[in-house]
Design brief:
single chain, 122 residues, mainly alpha, globular
Length: 122
Amino acid sequence: MKKILKLLCFTAVFTACKKDSKTTDTTMANSDDFKNVLDSYYQESLKMFPLNATSAGDNRYNDILPNALSDDFIEKEKAFYKEYKEKISAFDDANLNENDQLSKAVLIWECDINLESLSFED
């Protein structure tokens, strides 16, 4: 009888301590999606600003030199920052770890600051 009681106690303790795998899986998927958005932002920014890519040691875009003063480029730049601000804002802070929350805040700040600078008249 004592063995059965001990077995039931151990089973109850281990069952109570089990993580909710559904929440963990959702958080991991959310974290992976978040990291994919950050990586996509970085890769697209290298393509949009090839001089930054070259200075970072990435030679894939050495053959590109955009006209950063053209209206077309400025519109592409605005669309780029608006798109990524929307994408990154869609992630709930409650589902992100502390490091990802900081990355989110920095990227939103970067998008805001660049959109603000692009809104000034020449």
